[in-house]
C-alpha cells in the first residue's frame, strides 16, 4: 500500500496490510500518496492489490532474481491462475453528508501480464456517487 517508509510508493510489508478492510485517505490542499492525502480540488487515491498465492520458484542457478514477468513465467503460472476480482465501496465523507460508489475491478488489468511483468490501470470515469 502507499506510505512506504523507504520512500518507495508501495512496500510489501505486513505492517501495511489492511487489518480492518478499511483504507482512509484524508482531505488536504493537494494529493500526496505517501501520506494518504487526497486533494480537495480533485485528486488521486492510489491503491495496490497483490495476489500472493501464485506459485513458488526456487533456484540455485540464478544470480539475480528479477521481479517481473520472467519470474511469473518460471513459476509456470497461467494467466487464468493470476486473475482475481476486487470489489469495494469508495466513500467520501463530507461535513454534512456522505457519498458512496461501489467499485468492481477484475485484475490483472492487462492480458499480457506474464510478458509485461507489471500491470496498472487508471480509472477516471464510470463511477456514480450516490448520497448516503
Précis, in short:
The protein has helices spanning 69-74, 79-82, 113-116, and strands at 26-28, 37-39, 84-93, 98-107, 130-131. It has 132 residues and is α+β, with helices and mostly antiparallel strands. The two termini are 27 Å apart.
Descriptive tags:
2 domains, 5 strands, alpha+beta, two-stranded parallel ribbon, 3 helices, 3-stranded antiparallel β-sheet
Termini Cα gap = 27 Å
User: Using only CA atoms, what is the Rg?
Assistant: 18 Å
Structural class: alpha+beta
Helix content: 10-25%
Query: Residue ranges: pLDDT <50 for 5 or more in a row?
Result: none
Major beta sheet, strand line-up: 3-4-5
The helix-strand sequence is: EEHHEEHE
Helix segment tally: 3
Total separate domains: 2
Q: Name the shape in a single word.
A: elongated
Total number of strands: 5
Biggest sheet character: 3 strands, antiparallel
Mean of residue pLDDT? 77
What does this molecule look like?
With 132 residues, the chain is of the alpha+beta class. The protein folds into two domains: 1-48, no CATH class; 68-132, no CATH class. The chain has helices at residues 69-74, 79-82, 113-116; strands spanning 26-28, 37-39, 84-93, 98-107, 130-131. The longest helix is centred in the middle third of the chain and has 6 residues, at 69-74. The two termini are 27 Å apart. The model has no long low-confidence stretch (mean pLDDT 77).
Amino acid at each position: 500500500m502507499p506510505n512506504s517508509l523507504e520512500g518507495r510508493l508501495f512496500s510489501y510489508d505486513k505492517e501495511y496490510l489492511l487489518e480492518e478492510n478499511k483504507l482512509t485517505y484524508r482531505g488536504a490542499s493537494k494529493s500526496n500518496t505517501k501520506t494518504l492525502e487526497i486533494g480537495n480540488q480533485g485528486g488521486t487515491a492510489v491503491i495496490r492489490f497483490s495476489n500472493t498465492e501464485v506459485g513458488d520458484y526456487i533456484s540455485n542457478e540464478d544470480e539475480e532474481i528479477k521481479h517481473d514477468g520472467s519470474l511469473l513465467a518460471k513459476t509456470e503460472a497461467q494467466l487464468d491462475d493470476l486473475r482475481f476480482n476486487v470489489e469495494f465501496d469508495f466513500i467520501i465523507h463530507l461535513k454534512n453528508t456522505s457519498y458512496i460508489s461501489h467499485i468492481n475491478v477484475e485484475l490483472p488489468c492487462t492480458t499480457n501480464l506474464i510478458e509485461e511483468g507489471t500491470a496498472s490501470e487508471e480509472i477516471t470515469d464510470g463511477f456514480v456517487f450516490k448520497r448516503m
